[in-house]
Specification:
By secondary structure, the chain is of the alpha+beta class. Helices cover 43% and strands 19% of the residues. The chain has a 6-stranded antiparallel β-sheet, covered by helices on one side. Strands 7-9-10 form a 3-stranded antiparallel β-sheet. A two-stranded antiparallel sheet has the order 8-11.
Length: 322
């Protein structure tokens, strides 16, 4: 993106009216929502209410993001991103050129870390379980989110639901990651490549959980894996999920749903051992009993997480009333 034009698009005055060349829909800028490598996003008023509008001089990037949002809309039951409402060009009188833009649903919510800070660390795993469900749907469609970080997560609605924002870094699996933020990038930590695969996003999920428990960002050290493991062990919340987190950091998960199942199991058992548990040899009768217990555990596991979610949510509502 042209630096001069980017600076201009990131500083459009409040009250500026964006009128689409082809659809003739008007959008009045209320305030900036953010900016990145490929454009600026504003809150705007429209005939349909408040919307979010993204402008960029990079038409290819805009088209790519619009295609991602269209694909997201086909995935039912997962809050992958905002709904796409419009795509058009705006003739900018300042630069005397056409600026491509698209309009999307404005999601009113609270930033991920702000939500955790107000309501407590117990919400981390609840929100992450939701996030993993959404990511699994995205991965099944052949995409990787890429630039996964707290700034691109919003907690909205009742009950609180994680929503993914800013699809600018979303990349087709097998290609090089388009956009990334160093702290959540496995390449930065020397623990993997920047090739788009599900494990790339899951590494970022682990880093988000770690960062939620260590609010101040920390610098990488020489032995990054040992550094992260030590930090996980040192925090009471993270220690419950240390096996899951280390598997994500090591790239051992190929699907988000597998990481989700292990998190649910960790909640169920409350604390996982730091070393893999080796079961003693069992008699045939005990083996049969074990198989039956294993079947029951799946049902109990599901019931447990549902009860946990309901209890935490009930406490949240009680706190709102007081």
């Amino acid at each position: 993106m042209n630096p001069i034009l980017k600076n201009h698009l990131c500083k459009l005055p409040v009250g500026t009216v964006i009128v689409g060349k082809w659809h003739n829909h008007a959008y009045k800028i209320v305030k900036p929502l953010g900016s990145g490598a490929n454009g600026a996003v504003y809150l705007a008023e429209s005939m349909k209410g408040l919307v979010a509008i993204k402008l960029s001089d990079n038409g290819t990037s805009i088209t790519s993001e619009v295609n991602v949002l269209k694909r997201f809309s086909k995935v039912q039951g997962a809050a992958l991103g905002p709904s796409l409402l419009d795509m058009d060009d705006w003739f900018d009188p300042y630069t005397n050129r056409a600026i491509p833009f698209y309009v999307m649903e404005y999601i009113k919510g609270e930033e991920f870390f702000s939500f955790i800070k107000k309501r407590g660390k117990e919400w981390i795993v609840i929100l992450v379980l939701q996030l993993l469900s959404a990511l699994d749907q995205l991965h099944e469609e052949g995409w990787v989110f890429g630039d996964l970080k707290p700034e691109n997560l919003l907690v909205a609605g009742m009950p609180p639901t994680v929503r993914l924002l800013d699809v600018g870094g979303t990349t087709l699996q097998g290609r090089a990651i388009k956009e990334f933020t160093e702290f959540y990038d496995r390449g930065y930590w020397g623990l993997g490549s920047r090739k788009a695969d599900p494990a790339y996003d899951l590494f970022a999920v682990a880093m988000i959980m770690i960062h939620a428990c260590y609010p101040l960002k920390f610098e990488r050290k020489e032995n990054t894996r040992q550094q992260l493991f030590t930090m996980i062990r040192a925090d009471a919340t993270l220690r419950k999920y240390q096996n899951v987190l280390m598997k994500a950091i090591d790239g051992a998960y190929k699907r988000a749903i597998d990481m989700k199942r292990d998190l649910v199991a960790a909640i169920h058992h409350d604390d996982l051992p730091s070393k893999p548990f080796v079961a003693p040899k069992q008699s045939s009768s005990r083996k049969q009993h074990h198989k039956k217990s294993k079947k029951r555990s799946g049902v109990l596991e599901t019931a447990f997480i549902v009860v946990t979610l309901l209890c935490v949510y009930a406490l949240y509502l009680y706190g709102q009333i007081l």
